[in-house]
Amino acid sequence: MNVEMTKDVVRMTVTPGNPPQPSSPTARPPRVAVGPSPAMRAGSVLQAIREGASVTSAVHPSVHAHPAAVDIRGFELWYGSFKALHSVSMPIPRGRVTAMVGPSGCGKSTLLRSINRMNDLVDGVRTTGALHVGEHDVYAGGVDVISIRRRVGMVFQKSNPFPMSIFDNVVYGLRIYGERRKDVLQECCERALRQAALWDEVKDRLKQSAIGLSGGQQQRLCIARSIAVNPEVLLMDEPCSALDPIATQKIEELIREIAEKLTVVIVTHNMQQAARVSNYTAFMYLGRLVEFGSTADIFQNPQLPETEQYVTGRFG
Amino acid sequence: MNSPGSIPTATLRSPARLMSALMLGLTGVASFLIVAVLLTVLGYLLFRGFGGLSIDFFTRLPTGNPQDPGGFANGILGTLILVGMAALVGVPFGVLAGIYLSEYGGRGLGAWLVSPVRLVCDVLAGVPSIVIGIVGYELIVVPMKGASAYAGAAALAVIMVPIVARTTEEMLRLVPASFREGSLALGATKSQTILRVVLPAAGGSVITGILLAVARIAGETAPILFTIGGSRLLPGDLDKEFPSLTLQIYNAARSPAPSEQQLAWTGMVVLIAILLVLNLAIRLATARAIKNRVGG
Questions:
Q1: Buried/exposed B29-52: b ≥16 CB within 10 Å, e otherwise
Q2: Nearest to B187 among A146, A156, A163 (CB)
Q3: Are A146 and B107 a contacting pair at CB < 8 A?
Q4: What pLDDT, on a 0 to 100 scale, did the predictor assign at position B34?
Q5: B290 close contact with A: CB closer than 8 A
Q6: Nearest-CA neighbor of B273 among B211, B233, B204, B215?
Q7: Residue B119 belongs to what domain range?
């Protein structure tokens, strides 16, 4: 699986700016039916999920080509009495971009926020199952949540630069870890801003407030702030949903670049975006992982007809 | 149903316009009256008190002699010291309580404490200041066998704490949750998040709350009426009788001697001037806070 193939997927399945037509599957190669159950017909898996049945996720063998940076095993989550995640098992490959797609309320953001335990901030959250980052079970008793969040960065849907200078924003993480040396902070600030493709735009106004930046610049600043502390994993929760197409394009380029150094997990509602930036794609529905495989397979050759219908825009 | 393109004519407009003009008139008259009343009070105050402004007023002590009444140097200094002492206690307590109410109280251990604390703050803020003065007299002055600056400052601090706590809480609540999330997601602890992101983001408005409370207690008379005892000397020992501007205005205004009454008028002008300066400081701080928040 490589980026070139991902780009092919874009060309083949989705024409940018032109939503896929329901009646034009002719250009697609014939689908190989290797679903988990031979009796499975179109819609039956989603129907079964709606009826509350437990279903087996269709996880392609290709996801095991890389060691897992985040290994989710039988993970379940409740908000009070509402069960938001049903036995999700998903090895997220190291050093790759994994996209999570699915209709609103399918639990993809919940799953994303489980990885760095941001769900702890919500009242009444309970979990079972295991979620490993590296070797460590994030939900084991006595785990230091702070140290997990240092290893797993997060970029939010709405950019949230702090009301302080650009420089102070970027080095915020380093400072809270106790770094005081000015030269170290400056060096890290420049490196992070360069990685976030923001350095040239802000290098002359590092001392100015971050609030004055444009929406796209703010989001790239938030990415710089996250990668300044060298996380192993970067979680992105619909990072482009509030941005215009040009800013979105810049963020997507950025995602492909930083993915060379770390593992990126991105939640998106935009199928084209998932196809463009990700190596692997997970399709979720009502708290279940339905299908998980390489982005090319999910978009061109999914095991389940439901997945194909969703990613081509004929459902959800 | 109107056909496309047809616009309803004046039939509906006239009463609505009339109502609009009426509203404009009423709100305008109300605003004008408020300004008029304020200007009357201030104008009369200046008319009566301005003539008494002199170097003597700021540098001399009250003599008690109607022929040569002296000044309120001790009272001005005393009020500043009392307010400073009260703020020294009231600001940290108030700000910390406000942080607790806004940041820590929501869930987990001690969540049950939030509603009672908030209720107590609201009730305490509404307690008439004379009540706090008399209770302070019974609980502090009587056991300490004498009025003192400590007793007065304590009474003022009690008035100050709930105001500071509630404004701090409200201002911290205005800080977007996304700032807290962003900080926590970077591995910051809760206290780091509060100290480095939430408090600075709310900074200006928290200071506004503090200044509001300071302005409020600087003008209080009832709580210190029974607690500081008053003094004709410059502020000295904090555990003895202590002078205050408001108390001296109160006493001088009740004097039959016109020269002492003049002192009271002048004292009021000075007190209003001090509060006005504080108020301007508040406005400046608030304007800066609002400016900082735009786009945030």
A1: eeeeeeeeeeeeeeeebeebbeeb
A2: A146
A3: no
A4: 96
A5: no
A6: B215
A7: 77-244
Considering the domain boundaries, does residue A91 fall inside one? yes
C-alpha distance from B258 to closest chain A C-alpha (Å): 57
Phi, psi (deg, nearest 5) at residue A198: -120, -10
| Adjacent-strand bridge partners of A160 | none
CA–CA distances in Å: residue B41 to residues A175, B47, B217, B273, B277: 54, 10, 21, 13, 18
Domain annotation covers residue A32:
no
CB–CB of A206/A185 below 8 Å? Answer: no
Low-confidence stretches of chain A (pLDDT beneath 50): 1-40
- For residue B235, give the nearest of B97, B74, B121 by alpha carbon: B74
pLDDT digit string, tens, across residues B162-178: 999 999 999 999 999 99
Contacts of B179 in chain A (CB under 8 A): 160, 162-163
Residue A171 to residue A283: CA distance in whole angstroms: 35
Residue B181 Cα, gap to closest chain A Cα (Å): 8
Is residue B97 one of the residues assigned to a domain?
yes
Check residue B230 and give left, alpha or beta (phi > 0: left; psi -120 to 50: alpha). Answer: left
- Note whether residue A277 is domain-resident: yes
- Give how far B282 is from chain A: nearest CA, Å: 21
> Which residues of chain B lie closer than 8 angstroms to A148, CB-CB?
187
In a domain, B39, yes or no: no
Tell me whether residues B188 and A176 touch, CB distance under 8 A: yes
Nearest to B185 among A154, A163, A164 (CB): A154
Instruction: For residue B222, tell me if it sits in a domain.
Output: yes
Express each pLDDT in A156-207 by its tens digit. 999 999 999 999 999 999 999 988 899 999 999 999 999 888 999 999 999 9
pLDDT digits (tens, 9 = 90+) for B150-161: 999 999 999 999
Note the pLDDT tens digit of each residue in B181-202: 999 999 999 999 999 999 988 8
State the total domains in chain A: 1
Q: How many domains does chain B have?
A: 1
ipTM over 0.85: no
Pick from A118, A147, A150: CB nearest B181: A118
Instruction: Confirm whether A19 is domain-assigned.
Output: no
Of residues B14 and B141, more confidently modeled:
B141
Residue A116: which CATH number?
A: 3.40.50.300
Residue B171's CATH number: 1.10.3720.10
**Residue B192 to residue A154, Cβ atoms within 8 A:** no
pLDDT tens-digit map of B69-89: 888 888 999 999 999 999 999
CB A269 within 8 A of CB A238: yes
Please state, in angstroms and as integers, the Cα–Cα distance from residue B174 to each residue in A215, B212, B277, following that order: 21, 18, 27
CA dist., res. A13 & res. A29, Å (int): 10
Query: What would the pLDDT profile of B20-33 be if each residue is shown by its tens digit?
Result: 889 999 999 999 99
What is the distance in angstroms between the Cα of B161 and the nearest Cα belonging to chain A? 28
Q: What is the arithmetic mean of pLDDT over B250-257?
A: 90
Residue of chain A nearest B103, judged by CA positions: A121
Q: Compare CB distances from A153 to B176, B179, B185 and report the shortest one's residue.
A: B185
Q: Do A176 and B184 lie within an 8 Å CB cutoff?
A: no
